[in-house]
Amino acid sequence: MQGKRTVFPNKVLPYLLLLPQLAVTIVFFLWPAAQAFWSSFQREDAFGFKTTFVWFANYTKLFADPVYLNSFRTTVIFSLAVSLLSLGIALLLAVAATRMLRSSRIYSTLIVWPYAVAPAIAGILWWFLFNPSIGIIAYVLRRFGIDWNHLVDPNDAMILVVIAATWKQISYNFLFFMAGLQSIPHSLEEAAAIDGAGPTKRFWTIIFPLLSPTTFYLMVINVVYAMFDTFGVIHATTEGGPARATEILVYKVYFDGFVGLNLGSSAAQSVILMAIVIGLTVVQFRWVERRVQY
Amino acid sequence: MLKKALVMSAGLVAMLAASPAVQAATQIQWWHAMGGENGAKLEEIAKGFNQSQSDYEIVPVFKGTYDEAMNGAIAAFRANEQPAIIQIYEVGTGTMMAAKGAVYPVYQLMKDQGEPWDQSKFLPAVVGYYSDTDGNVLSLPFNSSTPILYYNKDVFEKAGLDPETPPKTWADMEKFSQQIVDSGAATCGFTTAWISWIHTENLNALHNMAYSTEANGFGGLGAEFVFNNPLTVRHWGNLKKWQDSGLFKFGGPAGGDNAPPLFYSQECAMFMNSSAGRAAVINNAKDFKVGFGPLPYYDDVIQEPLNSIIGGATLWTLQGRPAEEYAGVAKFFTYLQKPEVQADWHQFSGYLPITEAAYELGKSQGYYEANPGSDIAIKQLTRIEPTENSKGIRFGNYVQVRGLIDDEFAALLGGQKTAQEALDDLVKRGNEQLRDFQSANE
């Protein structure tokens, strides 16, 4: 197709140029991953004096453990709730903000702010607001007869971490939706309006389908965020409690490995997580990127 | 500009010249988990030692919470970069003791270095917790505490109770709480820190009940938990009942972060926590008078309750450091046992005096008369010769088991389980942890 093609004669240089990035990938990703994979077949005491090769014992034990299976369930509920809520609210805000002619910019800036807040700080913020002893929201809820106590009630705790994690993610989604909305040609909407379609109809038949690449991309990103990047939020608020009701898989890896010093089980759990990430990536590239119309 | 630089470098030279001892001294790393005021006091102790001699310099390094300090030290050990001294909390004792190649037992260290070492100087309840099956102390007791009861004297008076009489039994506790809530003197009777330490481990010790087989784990790694006995079931059931009726307010898992504010804000009239919380309680109780008492008990289970068991931390020496550092560690440990140093630390922090001599010194200084309630913890701990059931507990993977206790207690309060179900599940899950540890370490 191309008339001219630049040919680089040097066969070594490209690899040399890639070397720094490859080195980083190997040292910080592949090597630890291989170590985790290897430890997941071992049982070891905390100090590393006695190491026994136990084949799949760590894995079979995990899948026979109701606590681990429950952590799976918790993770699914948590990530779906966070993804759907943050996508829904962000879309609503983005649509509302694009309608504004002059103030759109100010709204956007304000909505993007929470994204700059570190997850642990976001967690602490909501933890304070909902704290059963000193929190202002808990105080107001009590006025309405709701005895809010995320230290005891698993549902309250789940709602708290979902709110904290969602609040932080709305900004990110909002930015992408704003960009997506701006790239949809106005002429399409105007033509539909002339044909007599109302605002709701126009949104669902024109804007929403045209936004679908953005939405699908964000869906994957959000699920990954909820599953892997919310550690700080959970650590700062519920620490996985009460009764492990908010212990998502990533938190369990940390707790069993770094607090409980059960390295074999923790390694097996991170290998399972690695498989999940690989699965999600395949879904994104193979399925989503092909099917979604651009 | 040049002048300024000259003055500065002159100052630098003067500073270096003034501290030749520091340069020559062997540095010894001491990792610890004491934040806030107690952390500052700890650094003061290290400084005191450094100034008392010129051969060694103790360098205290704050490593975060007890969990973080312990895990940091273990990771450092695996990377061969361990500190000489590490402060480990009582829950980690089982793990440390099983790591025979990693620790340098303190009795051995003192003997090797020719420093004086006499275990009988320590309080028996403290030393028993940290000795091996042959009675040798493996780590130096540093900060030990035991749970006590704090109560609000002003609220007691408003409720028509005698402010000088804390509740003695759990029946009193219920009666007093009811009277406090009914009279409107406070909205809740009591709150507590540490469901695991106070309402499970100490509960069984006070009532002379076995916590597990194998002498509460002191006998070996094969121990099985047996604390799902009628006493614990009854007590947990009571806590759930009182939580529902408003007499008790749960302060959260582990150390119960929300419990102290409930007491300080006078929402709850009584509060159970470590004796080391004394300084904080006095600092925060600005608007009311605080009373102190021993932990309540069930008088139909035991006539005279036994001693309570301790919490807190000890100093472990790790293997693999240069020989000259161990000489310094031994000297430092001797310094730490001095009655003046001990008494100062104890009186400042609310931790127990570790040695009899420090306790005697406090008495002769008139400290306990000037600070009523400050000796409740010591009295509770030493009121009787410890039995097998009140000597303490020792288990591997106990950090996880502590987590399980909080989980199951939350399931009880949340109404998902009855007290019997929660404790049966807890014992079952706890035993799995013990078997895991046993198979990894045998």
Tally of alpha and pi helices of chain A = 12
Indicate the proportion of strand residues of chain B.
5-15%
In terms of quaternary structure, what is this?
Answer: heterodimer
- The CATH H-level superfamily of the largest domain in chain B is Periplasmic binding protein-like II
**What is the CA-CA span between the terminal residues of chain B?**
68 Å
- CATH architecture grouping of the largest domain in chain B: 3-Layer(aba) Sandwich
Could you spell the SSE succession of chain A in H and E letters?
HEEHHHHHHHHHHH
**SS elements, strand count of chain B:** 10
CATH fold category name of the domain at 69-122 and 167-291 in chain A: MetI-like fold
CATH topology of the largest domain in chain B, by name, is D-Maltodextrin-Binding Protein, domain 2
Structural class of chain B: alpha/beta
> What's the CATH H-level homologous superfamily of the domain at 69-122 and 167-291 in chain A?
MetI-like
**Order of strands across the widest beta sheet of chain A?**
1-2
User: In whole angstroms, how far apart are the ends of chain A?
Assistant: 24 Å
Report the top-level CATH class of the domain at 69-122 and 167-291 in chain A. Answer: Mainly Alpha
Sheet with most strands: strand arrangement of chain B: 2-1-3-10-4
* Poorly predicted ranges of chain B: 10-22
State the share of residues found in helices of chain B, binned by percent. 40-55%
Output mean pLDDT of chain A: 87
Structural class of chain A: mainly alpha
